[in-house]
Fold these 2 entries.
Entry 1:
Amino acid sequence: MDARLNHKFSQRANGLKNPLAKALLALMEEKQTNLSVAVDLTNKADILALVDKIGPFVCVIKTHVDVIEDFDQDFIQQLTALSEKHRFYIFEDRKFADIGNTVKLQYSSGVYKIASWAHITNCHTVPGEGIVQGLKEVGLPLGRGLLLLAEMSSKGSLATGSYTQTTLEWAEKHNDFCIGFIAGRRFPNLQHDFITMSPGIGLDVKGDGLGQQYRTPHEVIVNCGSDIIIVGRGIYGAGRDPVVEAQRYKQAGWNAYQERLSGK
Ligand code: BMP
């Protein structure tokens, strides 16, 4: 077993190289939350209102800015102000997937200028190591962090086996910029420590009819050694009170982490 699993997030912060990863782990311990909320709504006002309500309970807000109908730089300014007010990091779930030169442009330029505001972003590793190098050239000087998609929560995902294994190797090699993984479990036997973030989390349902597969915070954190739970519709879905649900998932995630620390 990886002994680091029994270390507090704040202790593990010392072992990570990337400054943002260190700051995130420290913040999690301080705010007592390992909850990230995926705010997949399609207009500015709805997203900002939701984030203002749930901000106190999260360590990371995950966005898909390309689904926002009225996206503009004012949205970014307001989201950034909320991240300072409530103290959370912003993770743009861009899932870059092109050659190094193209992802550099996609990350730095265009309508979204993701690198200028997103503390964290992520990429697929299907194009080869150049994607990590390209993103790093833009993001590292800005103090950003990258997550590699080592696995996916959806049914039939092809990110398995040697694909996942090679992804881990690139993270080790670029651990100045790679802060961790999107995955359903902690990977054993890695030289460096990384943050594992798991989507596909639900306390009430098992799937969504489009391939999404949900597991509980206990299962991913205690049984599988993940660190951060990413919850979307479980929090803002129809008929739910987002504040009540955010508190419920925050508690479930933190209890699971405490249980893991206690080594029970
Ligand atoms: P929900 O909890 O509503 O199913 O949302 C999950 C979120 O996590 C979505 O924003 C989705 O894009 C993202 N996600 C995922 O579900 N599985 C993955 O493997 C990777 C993801 O980024």
Entry 2:
Amino acid sequence: MLDELKRIEKAALAELSTVVDQAGLDGWRVTHLGRNSDLMQIFDNLGSVTREERPAIGRRANEIKKALESAFEGRVSALEQETLSRSLQGDRLDVTLPGRRLALGRLHPDTRTLRELYRIFGEMGFQVYRSREVEDDEHNFQLLNFPPGHPARDMQDTFFLETRTGNSSNPLLLRTHTSPGQIHAMREAASTNPDNPPALRMILPGMVYRVEQTDARHETQFDQVEGLAIGRGIRFSDLKGTLADFARRMFGPQTRTRFRASFFPFTEPSAEYDIGCFLCGGSGCEVCGSGWLEIGGCGMVHPIVLRNGGYDPEQYTGFAFGLGPQRIAMLRYHIEDIRLFWQNDIRFLGQFS
Ligand code: DAH
């Protein structure tokens, strides 16, 4: 029987070393340590062994049972270890791989241009004044010296608003330009000291609206930046100096400026403001044609407008200008279609860094 025990132990250990998974472990335990295993048979049969042999066989059987149990435990933990190290090898995390780049947002080209305008005019002492987008006829036209029926209104085809309390002589509308902000700004300032209103130097940016057939150069909504300076003794040369300096700061120190006589109801005299084309240097190209780019309108604030704003035209003078920041952005970034600005096409917006 001792030989039999030796054989049982040897066979069990040999088989254990070939076990590679949980199912194998379970099977092995049933076969070699289970109720019907050869080893348990020996315990069951101890009664049939002689008294002399019994203690030695019993002891040996117990030793083998312990040995198999501990070999089993050893195999369990060896297999666990093996599984762990296999998964550490296989699923290895490579921390040196470059991460996925985050798609960063960026500023809209119009916003970039506006912020640059704010910075430049800020350096020249101009404050930003925000004015409403819903106006009435009085502020958008009448107080700016466009009486009802004035032909200059034709250039600004207007979105009128229907209101229940409609006042037909002064309907609400979407502002067609930022110039009505001049009236609000002047009146606000003049109300603080009507006999001696303070000097003003401000820009008034914002969206304006016109009824347009849209095409590559026309949109029903676009930005303007209005400029206004009011004080005692302000002259046309101040206007020219300011806009010439702005052009150099915005487009480079070599930039030339040109003023052409024009007409606006709210300025006298009035001018168109051009800059020498920064693409061709003024020799004439596809974009400019003549070597000059039209950037905006300007002039000396009309005495009637000054009076409507609460400033005595005998004491005060001032200049005003209106710029198209989208036109500036189109020239700088070679944007060929103004409709791209508000289409929110990420392929377009992502090009400006
Ligand atoms: N408001 C004018 C327009 O939209 C632009 C303009 C021209 C504004 C001359 C001014 C100016 O302040 O002086 O057509």
